[in-house]
Amino acid sequence: MSKSKKTNKSEGPSLLTPEEQGLLDVLLGDLSRVDPSRLAQEAARPQFVEALVERLPVTDPQTPRILLGLRSLFREKSLAKAIKKAAFRLRQKGRTAMKYIGMDVHIRNSYLHITDEQGQVFGRGRCGNTFLELREFLEDLEGESVRVCLESTTNSRAVRQLVLRCGQDVGADVTVDVLHARKLRIIAESVTKCDRLDAQVINELARSNLKLPVCYMPDDEEFALREHLRARSDLVGIRTMLKNRIHAVLHRRGILTPAKLDLFARAGRLFLDQADLDEAGRTILTRYLSEMDHIDATIDESTQSLKELARRPRWSKPAALLQTVPGIGLITSLTILAELGDLRRFHRRAAVANYAGLVPVIRLSDEAGYSGGITRRGSNHLRQVLAEAAWVAVGRVPSYAALFDRVSRRRGRQRAIIGVARQMLEDAWTILRKDEAFRYVDPPETEEPAGESRCDSKEVASSVAG
To answer: How high does pLDDT run on average in the chain?
Structure first.
Protein backbone atom coordinates (compact mmCIF):
# COMPACT_ATOMS: atom_id res chain seq x y z
CA MET A 1 0.00 0.00 0.00
CA SER A 2 1.21 3.47 -0.79
CA LYS A 3 1.71 5.72 2.19
CA SER A 4 -0.57 8.69 2.45
CA LYS A 5 1.01 12.02 1.65
CA LYS A 6 1.81 14.35 4.51
CA THR A 7 -0.35 17.38 4.84
CA ASN A 8 1.12 20.61 3.62
CA LYS A 9 2.19 22.68 6.60
CA SER A 10 2.01 25.90 4.63
CA GLU A 11 -1.77 25.92 4.75
CA GLY A 12 -1.78 28.17 7.83
CA PRO A 13 -2.54 31.50 6.08
CA SER A 14 -5.44 29.92 4.16
CA LEU A 15 -7.16 29.15 7.47
CA LEU A 16 -7.74 32.84 8.21
CA THR A 17 -11.26 34.17 8.46
CA PRO A 18 -12.34 36.86 5.96
CA GLU A 19 -12.15 39.48 8.73
CA GLU A 20 -8.61 38.42 9.62
CA GLN A 21 -7.58 38.41 5.97
CA GLY A 22 -8.91 41.94 5.56
CA LEU A 23 -7.10 43.13 8.68
CA LEU A 24 -3.91 41.46 7.49
CA ASP A 25 -4.05 43.33 4.15
CA VAL A 26 -4.58 46.63 5.98
CA LEU A 27 -1.62 46.06 8.32
CA LEU A 28 0.70 45.00 5.51
CA GLY A 29 -0.27 48.15 3.62
CA ASP A 30 1.04 50.31 6.46
CA LEU A 31 3.36 48.47 8.86
CA SER A 32 3.54 51.46 11.19
CA ARG A 33 0.07 50.42 12.40
CA VAL A 34 1.31 47.04 13.63
CA ASP A 35 1.51 47.07 17.44
CA PRO A 36 2.70 43.67 18.82
CA SER A 37 1.55 44.45 22.38
CA ARG A 38 -1.96 45.26 21.10
CA LEU A 39 -2.09 41.98 19.20
CA ALA A 40 -1.21 40.17 22.42
CA GLN A 41 -3.80 42.07 24.48
CA GLU A 42 -6.54 41.33 21.95
CA ALA A 43 -5.55 37.62 21.97
CA ALA A 44 -4.86 37.43 18.25
CA ARG A 45 -4.85 33.85 16.94
CA PRO A 46 -1.37 32.35 16.36
CA GLN A 47 -2.40 31.55 12.77
CA PHE A 48 -3.05 35.22 12.11
CA VAL A 49 0.24 36.33 13.66
CA GLU A 50 2.12 33.61 11.76
CA ALA A 51 0.58 34.77 8.48
CA LEU A 52 1.63 38.33 9.29
CA VAL A 53 5.21 37.25 10.01
CA GLU A 54 5.50 35.22 6.81
CA ARG A 55 4.39 38.16 4.66
CA LEU A 56 6.51 40.87 6.28
CA PRO A 57 8.67 42.56 3.60
CA VAL A 58 12.39 42.38 4.32
CA THR A 59 12.95 45.83 2.85
CA ASP A 60 10.66 47.68 5.23
CA PRO A 61 12.45 49.34 8.20
CA GLN A 62 9.47 48.50 10.46
CA THR A 63 10.01 44.74 10.09
CA PRO A 64 12.79 44.34 12.73
CA ARG A 65 10.69 46.19 15.31
CA ILE A 66 7.64 44.00 14.65
CA LEU A 67 9.62 40.75 14.77
CA LEU A 68 11.31 41.70 18.04
CA GLY A 69 8.03 42.64 19.69
CA LEU A 70 6.26 39.48 18.54
CA ARG A 71 9.14 37.27 19.70
CA SER A 72 8.88 38.58 23.26
CA LEU A 73 5.07 38.35 23.46
CA PHE A 74 4.11 35.11 21.66
CA ARG A 75 5.54 31.75 22.79
CA GLU A 76 3.84 29.28 20.43
CA LYS A 77 6.38 26.90 18.81
CA SER A 78 5.14 27.29 15.24
CA LEU A 79 5.10 31.06 15.58
CA ALA A 80 8.57 31.16 17.12
CA LYS A 81 9.85 29.11 14.18
CA ALA A 82 8.26 31.52 11.68
CA ILE A 83 9.81 34.52 13.45
CA LYS A 84 13.21 32.84 13.42
CA LYS A 85 12.94 32.24 9.65
CA ALA A 86 11.91 35.84 9.02
CA ALA A 87 14.84 37.14 11.09
CA PHE A 88 17.19 34.90 9.10
CA ARG A 89 15.84 36.35 5.83
CA LEU A 90 16.52 39.84 7.14
CA ARG A 91 20.10 38.99 8.07
CA GLN A 92 20.67 37.44 4.66
CA LYS A 93 19.42 40.58 2.94
CA GLY A 94 21.51 42.80 5.17
CA ARG A 95 18.49 44.95 5.93
CA THR A 96 18.65 44.94 9.73
CA ALA A 97 19.34 48.25 11.36
CA MET A 98 18.91 46.95 14.88
CA LYS A 99 20.98 48.34 17.73
CA TYR A 100 21.42 46.50 21.02
CA ILE A 101 21.96 48.04 24.45
CA GLY A 102 23.02 46.19 27.58
CA MET A 103 22.29 48.11 30.79
CA ASP A 104 23.79 47.45 34.20
CA VAL A 105 21.29 49.31 36.38
CA HIS A 106 21.86 50.93 39.77
CA ILE A 107 19.68 53.23 41.83
CA ARG A 108 21.14 56.57 40.70
CA ASN A 109 22.91 55.66 37.46
CA SER A 110 23.39 52.91 34.87
CA TYR A 111 26.21 51.71 32.64
CA LEU A 112 25.22 51.28 28.96
CA HIS A 113 26.93 49.25 26.21
CA ILE A 114 25.60 49.91 22.66
CA THR A 115 26.44 47.75 19.62
CA ASP A 116 24.96 46.68 16.31
CA GLU A 117 24.08 43.11 15.37
CA GLN A 118 27.69 42.31 14.41
CA GLY A 119 28.99 43.52 17.79
CA GLN A 120 30.54 46.79 16.60
CA VAL A 121 30.54 49.21 19.53
CA PHE A 122 28.64 52.44 18.96
CA GLY A 123 28.94 53.80 22.47
CA ARG A 124 29.35 52.92 26.11
CA GLY A 125 29.53 54.73 29.37
CA ARG A 126 27.70 55.69 32.54
CA CYS A 127 24.73 58.04 32.73
CA GLY A 128 22.30 59.05 35.45
CA ASN A 129 18.85 57.51 35.73
CA THR A 130 17.16 60.78 34.77
CA PHE A 131 15.24 61.67 31.64
CA LEU A 132 17.62 64.40 30.46
CA GLU A 133 20.84 62.40 30.93
CA LEU A 134 19.48 59.22 29.38
CA ARG A 135 17.92 61.11 26.47
CA GLU A 136 21.24 62.80 25.74
CA PHE A 137 22.95 59.41 25.73
CA LEU A 138 20.41 57.94 23.28
CA GLU A 139 19.85 60.92 20.97
CA ASP A 140 22.19 59.52 18.27
CA LEU A 141 19.81 56.55 17.81
CA GLU A 142 17.12 58.60 16.11
CA GLY A 143 15.23 56.50 13.58
CA GLU A 144 16.89 53.26 14.72
CA SER A 145 15.27 50.06 16.00
CA VAL A 146 16.75 49.39 19.41
CA ARG A 147 16.55 46.44 21.80
CA VAL A 148 17.47 47.21 25.41
CA CYS A 149 18.09 44.48 28.01
CA LEU A 150 18.64 44.96 31.72
CA GLU A 151 18.61 42.81 34.83
CA SER A 152 15.64 42.76 37.18
CA THR A 153 16.15 45.02 40.19
CA THR A 154 13.97 47.02 42.56
CA ASN A 155 13.78 49.94 40.13
CA SER A 156 13.85 47.97 36.87
CA ARG A 157 10.22 48.82 36.08
CA ALA A 158 10.86 52.54 36.53
CA VAL A 159 14.05 52.38 34.44
CA ARG A 160 12.21 50.46 31.71
CA GLN A 161 9.53 53.13 31.50
CA LEU A 162 12.21 55.84 31.49
CA VAL A 163 14.05 54.21 28.57
CA LEU A 164 10.80 53.87 26.61
CA ARG A 165 10.03 57.56 27.17
CA CYS A 166 13.51 58.59 26.07
CA GLY A 167 13.33 56.38 22.98
CA GLN A 168 10.00 57.87 22.00
CA ASP A 169 11.32 61.39 22.53
CA VAL A 170 14.42 60.91 20.35
CA GLY A 171 12.42 59.13 17.63
CA ALA A 172 13.87 55.62 18.13
CA ASP A 173 11.81 52.44 18.08
CA VAL A 174 12.80 50.96 21.44
CA THR A 175 11.92 47.58 22.95
CA VAL A 176 12.96 46.95 26.57
CA ASP A 177 13.31 43.46 28.10
CA VAL A 178 13.87 43.00 31.84
CA LEU A 179 15.82 39.76 32.34
CA HIS A 180 15.45 37.47 35.34
CA ALA A 181 18.54 38.17 37.47
CA ARG A 182 18.46 34.80 39.26
CA LYS A 183 18.60 32.94 35.95
CA LEU A 184 21.47 35.00 34.51
CA ARG A 185 24.12 32.98 36.34
CA ILE A 186 26.69 33.91 33.71
CA ILE A 187 26.84 37.35 35.37
CA ALA A 188 26.44 36.34 39.00
CA GLU A 189 29.20 33.72 38.79
CA SER A 190 31.70 35.78 36.77
CA VAL A 191 35.21 35.81 38.20
CA THR A 192 35.83 39.36 37.02
CA LYS A 193 32.75 41.43 37.79
CA CYS A 194 32.30 45.12 37.14
CA ASP A 195 29.63 47.37 35.62
CA ARG A 196 31.38 47.62 32.25
CA LEU A 197 31.70 43.84 31.82
CA ASP A 198 28.19 43.17 33.14
CA ALA A 199 26.69 45.59 30.60
CA GLN A 200 28.79 43.96 27.85
CA VAL A 201 27.56 40.47 28.80
CA ILE A 202 23.93 41.64 28.80
CA ASN A 203 24.52 43.22 25.39
CA GLU A 204 25.89 39.94 24.02
CA LEU A 205 22.87 38.08 25.38
CA ALA A 206 20.56 40.61 23.69
CA ARG A 207 22.31 40.01 20.35
CA SER A 208 22.11 36.23 20.65
CA ASN A 209 19.33 34.02 19.34
CA LEU A 210 18.85 32.50 22.79
CA LYS A 211 15.48 32.43 24.50
CA LEU A 212 16.27 34.80 27.36
CA PRO A 213 14.45 34.64 30.74
CA VAL A 214 12.35 37.78 30.38
CA CYS A 215 10.47 38.97 33.48
CA TYR A 216 6.78 39.74 33.41
CA MET A 217 6.15 43.47 33.75
CA PRO A 218 2.76 44.36 35.33
CA ASP A 219 0.76 47.16 33.78
CA ASP A 220 -0.10 50.30 35.72
CA GLU A 221 -3.29 48.90 37.28
CA GLU A 222 -1.63 45.67 38.40
CA PHE A 223 1.34 47.59 39.76
CA ALA A 224 -0.91 49.96 41.75
CA LEU A 225 -2.87 47.04 43.22
CA ARG A 226 0.35 45.25 44.19
CA GLU A 227 1.68 48.38 45.87
CA HIS A 228 -1.51 48.89 47.91
CA LEU A 229 -1.55 45.26 49.05
CA ARG A 230 2.14 45.12 49.93
CA ALA A 231 1.96 48.43 51.81
CA ARG A 232 -0.96 47.12 53.86
CA SER A 233 0.98 43.91 54.55
CA ASP A 234 3.92 45.99 55.80
CA LEU A 235 1.62 47.93 58.14
CA VAL A 236 0.18 44.68 59.53
CA GLY A 237 3.74 43.48 60.13
CA ILE A 238 4.58 46.66 62.05
CA ARG A 239 1.44 46.25 64.16
CA THR A 240 2.40 42.65 64.96
CA MET A 241 5.87 43.84 66.00
CA LEU A 242 4.34 46.37 68.40
CA LYS A 243 2.09 43.71 69.93
CA ASN A 244 5.13 41.52 70.56
CA ARG A 245 6.92 44.46 72.18
CA ILE A 246 3.97 45.01 74.52
CA HIS A 247 4.01 41.35 75.53
CA ALA A 248 7.77 41.68 76.17
CA VAL A 249 7.21 44.70 78.46
CA LEU A 250 4.87 42.59 80.58
CA HIS A 251 7.11 39.50 80.56
CA ARG A 252 10.17 41.43 81.72
CA ARG A 253 8.21 42.57 84.77
CA GLY A 254 6.77 39.15 85.56
CA ILE A 255 3.18 40.14 84.76
CA LEU A 256 1.18 37.15 83.54
CA THR A 257 -1.86 37.68 81.33
CA PRO A 258 -5.01 35.61 81.92
CA ALA A 259 -5.43 32.63 79.61
CA LYS A 260 -7.33 33.28 76.37
CA LEU A 261 -7.36 37.04 76.99
CA ASP A 262 -6.86 39.20 73.92
CA LEU A 263 -4.69 42.04 75.23
CA PHE A 264 -5.75 44.33 72.43
CA ALA A 265 -9.51 43.91 72.67
CA ARG A 266 -11.63 45.95 75.12
CA ALA A 267 -11.11 43.58 78.06
CA GLY A 268 -7.40 43.34 77.33
CA ARG A 269 -7.00 47.13 77.21
CA LEU A 270 -8.68 47.34 80.61
CA PHE A 271 -6.20 44.76 81.94
CA LEU A 272 -3.28 46.81 80.58
CA ASP A 273 -4.63 50.00 82.17
CA GLN A 274 -4.81 48.28 85.58
CA ALA A 275 -1.46 46.45 85.31
CA ASP A 276 1.07 47.22 88.08
CA LEU A 277 3.89 48.80 86.05
CA ASP A 278 6.78 50.99 87.04
CA GLU A 279 7.08 54.49 85.56
CA ALA A 280 9.30 53.41 82.62
CA GLY A 281 7.06 50.45 81.78
CA ARG A 282 3.90 52.57 81.89
CA THR A 283 5.44 55.24 79.63
CA ILE A 284 6.69 52.71 77.09
CA LEU A 285 3.38 50.83 77.10
CA THR A 286 1.43 54.06 76.52
CA ARG A 287 3.63 54.95 73.55
CA TYR A 288 3.29 51.50 72.03
CA LEU A 289 -0.50 51.55 72.39
CA SER A 290 -0.73 55.04 70.92
CA GLU A 291 1.33 54.00 67.92
CA MET A 292 -0.81 50.86 67.52
CA ASP A 293 -3.99 52.93 67.46
CA HIS A 294 -2.52 55.12 64.73
CA ILE A 295 -1.48 52.08 62.66
CA ASP A 296 -4.92 50.49 63.13
CA ALA A 297 -6.51 53.60 61.65
CA THR A 298 -4.04 53.57 58.74
CA ILE A 299 -4.75 49.88 58.06
CA ASP A 300 -8.49 50.63 58.01
CA GLU A 301 -7.88 53.39 55.44
CA SER A 302 -5.78 51.02 53.36
CA THR A 303 -8.51 48.35 53.50
CA GLN A 304 -11.08 50.91 52.39
CA SER A 305 -8.89 51.86 49.42
CA LEU A 306 -8.65 48.17 48.45
CA LYS A 307 -12.44 47.83 48.65
CA GLU A 308 -12.77 50.73 46.21
CA LEU A 309 -10.23 49.12 43.88
CA ALA A 310 -12.11 45.83 44.06
CA ARG A 311 -15.23 47.55 42.70
CA ARG A 312 -13.47 48.50 39.46
CA PRO A 313 -14.62 46.52 36.39
CA ARG A 314 -11.26 44.83 35.90
CA TRP A 315 -11.19 43.32 39.41
CA SER A 316 -14.81 43.05 40.55
CA LYS A 317 -15.86 39.85 38.76
CA PRO A 318 -12.64 37.79 39.19
CA ALA A 319 -12.40 38.84 42.85
CA ALA A 320 -16.00 37.76 43.42
CA LEU A 321 -15.31 34.39 41.77
CA LEU A 322 -12.27 33.78 43.95
CA GLN A 323 -14.22 34.64 47.10
CA THR A 324 -16.52 31.69 46.44
CA VAL A 325 -13.63 29.54 47.70
CA PRO A 326 -13.95 29.09 51.49
CA GLY A 327 -11.05 30.85 53.21
CA ILE A 328 -10.44 33.39 50.43
CA GLY A 329 -11.63 36.88 51.27
CA LEU A 330 -11.09 40.34 49.82
CA ILE A 331 -7.37 40.69 50.57
CA THR A 332 -6.48 37.15 49.49
CA SER A 333 -8.46 37.37 46.24
CA LEU A 334 -6.90 40.71 45.28
CA THR A 335 -3.43 39.41 46.15
CA ILE A 336 -3.89 36.40 43.85
CA LEU A 337 -5.04 38.65 40.99
CA ALA A 338 -2.26 41.19 41.50
CA GLU A 339 0.58 38.69 41.88
CA LEU A 340 -0.43 36.35 39.05
CA GLY A 341 -1.13 39.13 36.53
CA ASP A 342 -1.80 37.85 33.02
CA LEU A 343 -3.15 34.30 33.41
CA ARG A 344 -2.27 33.44 29.80
CA ARG A 345 1.36 33.09 30.90
CA PHE A 346 0.51 29.81 32.63
CA HIS A 347 -0.28 26.80 30.49
CA ARG A 348 -1.13 24.36 33.29
CA ARG A 349 -1.91 24.24 36.99
CA ALA A 350 1.60 23.14 37.95
CA ALA A 351 3.02 26.25 36.28
CA VAL A 352 1.06 28.51 38.66
CA ALA A 353 2.35 26.64 41.72
CA ASN A 354 5.87 26.75 40.29
CA TYR A 355 5.60 30.53 39.81
CA ALA A 356 4.50 30.99 43.43
CA GLY A 357 7.34 28.82 44.78
CA LEU A 358 4.97 26.19 46.20
CA VAL A 359 6.56 23.20 44.42
CA PRO A 360 9.28 21.01 45.98
CA VAL A 361 12.94 21.27 45.06
CA ILE A 362 13.78 18.21 42.93
CA ARG A 363 17.28 17.14 41.91
CA LEU A 364 17.50 14.05 39.69
CA SER A 365 20.68 12.71 38.10
CA ASP A 366 20.98 9.12 36.85
CA GLU A 367 19.96 6.94 39.79
CA ALA A 368 20.53 9.62 42.41
CA GLY A 369 17.62 11.81 43.43
CA TYR A 370 16.76 14.43 46.00
CA SER A 371 13.47 16.06 46.94
CA GLY A 372 13.46 18.84 49.50
CA GLY A 373 11.22 21.65 50.69
CA ILE A 374 9.45 24.14 48.49
CA THR A 375 11.51 26.44 46.25
CA ARG A 376 10.17 29.65 47.90
CA ARG A 377 10.64 31.50 44.63
CA GLY A 378 8.13 34.03 43.49
CA SER A 379 6.00 36.29 45.65
CA ASN A 380 6.33 35.85 49.39
CA HIS A 381 3.12 37.88 49.85
CA LEU A 382 1.19 35.38 47.74
CA ARG A 383 2.47 32.37 49.71
CA GLN A 384 1.68 34.09 53.00
CA VAL A 385 -1.97 34.87 52.25
CA LEU A 386 -2.51 31.41 50.75
CA ALA A 387 -1.14 29.71 53.86
CA GLU A 388 -3.46 31.79 56.06
CA ALA A 389 -6.43 31.00 53.84
CA ALA A 390 -5.54 27.29 53.84
CA TRP A 391 -5.99 27.01 57.61
CA VAL A 392 -9.57 28.24 57.21
CA ALA A 393 -10.29 26.12 54.15
CA VAL A 394 -9.27 22.78 55.71
CA GLY A 395 -12.13 23.11 58.19
CA ARG A 396 -14.74 23.87 55.52
CA VAL A 397 -13.84 21.98 52.33
CA PRO A 398 -13.81 18.14 52.55
CA SER A 399 -11.27 17.66 49.75
CA TYR A 400 -8.83 20.10 51.37
CA ALA A 401 -9.35 18.43 54.75
CA ALA A 402 -8.63 15.01 53.24
CA LEU A 403 -5.45 16.31 51.61
CA PHE A 404 -4.35 17.91 54.88
CA ASP A 405 -4.95 14.72 56.88
CA ARG A 406 -3.19 12.52 54.34
CA VAL A 407 -0.05 14.66 54.15
CA SER A 408 0.11 15.58 57.84
CA ARG A 409 0.26 11.90 58.87
CA ARG A 410 3.43 11.44 56.78
CA ARG A 411 5.09 14.86 56.68
CA GLY A 412 3.64 16.98 59.49
CA ARG A 413 1.08 19.76 59.74
CA GLN A 414 3.25 22.56 58.33
CA ARG A 415 4.01 20.74 55.10
CA ALA A 416 0.41 19.62 54.88
CA ILE A 417 -0.88 23.19 54.99
CA ILE A 418 1.54 24.15 52.21
CA GLY A 419 0.08 21.34 50.12
CA VAL A 420 -3.41 22.73 50.72
CA ALA A 421 -2.19 26.24 49.83
CA ARG A 422 -0.86 24.91 46.54
CA GLN A 423 -4.13 23.13 45.80
CA MET A 424 -6.07 26.32 46.53
CA LEU A 425 -3.86 28.39 44.20
CA GLU A 426 -4.26 25.85 41.38
CA ASP A 427 -8.03 25.80 41.95
CA ALA A 428 -8.08 29.61 41.89
CA TRP A 429 -6.30 29.61 38.52
CA THR A 430 -8.80 27.09 37.16
CA ILE A 431 -11.72 29.17 38.43
CA LEU A 432 -10.39 32.28 36.69
CA ARG A 433 -9.62 30.47 33.44
CA LYS A 434 -13.04 28.77 33.27
CA ASP A 435 -14.89 31.79 34.67
CA GLU A 436 -16.82 29.57 37.06
CA ALA A 437 -17.51 29.67 40.79
CA PHE A 438 -15.94 27.18 43.20
CA ARG A 439 -17.67 23.80 43.51
CA TYR A 440 -17.22 21.29 46.31
CA VAL A 441 -15.69 18.00 45.21
CA ASP A 442 -15.75 14.86 47.35
CA PRO A 443 -12.23 13.67 48.27
CA PRO A 444 -10.92 10.57 46.44
CA GLU A 445 -11.28 7.28 48.26
CA THR A 446 -7.85 5.90 47.30
CA GLU A 447 -4.95 7.11 49.36
CA GLU A 448 -1.68 8.30 47.88
CA PRO A 449 1.24 5.88 48.34
CA ALA A 450 3.54 6.82 51.19
CA GLY A 451 6.64 7.19 49.03
CA GLU A 452 5.00 9.22 46.25
CA SER A 453 5.26 12.99 46.22
CA ARG A 454 2.14 15.00 45.38
CA CYS A 455 4.11 16.88 42.75
CA ASP A 456 5.24 14.94 39.69
CA SER A 457 8.85 15.81 38.89
CA LYS A 458 8.29 15.79 35.14
CA GLU A 459 5.34 18.13 35.48
CA VAL A 460 7.35 20.59 37.57
CA ALA A 461 10.35 20.48 35.28
CA SER A 462 8.28 21.17 32.18
CA SER A 463 6.08 23.87 33.70
CA VAL A 464 6.44 27.39 32.39
CA ALA A 465 6.00 30.13 34.96
CA GLY A 466 6.32 33.06 32.56
So the answer is: 84
Kindly state whether residues 264 and 335 are assigned to the same domain: no
Question: How many independent structural domains does the chain possess?
Answer: 4
Q: Are residues 169 and 253 in the same domain?
A: no
Q: Shortest CA distance to 389 belongs to which of 328, 431, 338? A: 328
Model pLDDT for residues 301-334, shown as the tens digit of each residue: 999 999 999 999 999 999 999 999 999 999 999 9
Distances (CA, A) of 319 to 100, 316, 356, 382, 440: 41, 5, 19, 15, 19
Look at residue 213 and tell me if it is in a domain.
no
* Residues 18-32, mean pLDDT to the nearest whole number: 77
Question: By residue range, what is the domain housing residue 412?
Answer: 315-462
Higher-confidence position of 457 and 28: 28
Helix (H), strand (E) counts: the chain: 19, 7
> CA 390, CA 355: separation in Å to the nearest integer?
18
Structural domain includes residue 214:
no
Assess whether pLDDT exceeds 50 at residue 283: yes
- Residue 103, SS3 per DSSP: strand
- The whole-angstrom separation of Cα 264 and Cα 270 is 9
138 three-class SS: helix
Max intra-chain CA distance, the chain: 102
Contact 312, 320 (CB under 8 A): no
- Distance from the Cα of residue 179 to its chain's centroid: 12
CA nearest neighbour of 113 among 201, 220, 25: 201
Q: What is the pLDDT of residues 26-58, one digit of tens each?
A: 777 777 777 777 766 665 677 777 777 777 776
pTM, entire model:
0.73
Q: What span, in angstroms and rounded, lies between the C-alpha atoms of 79 and 84?
A: 9
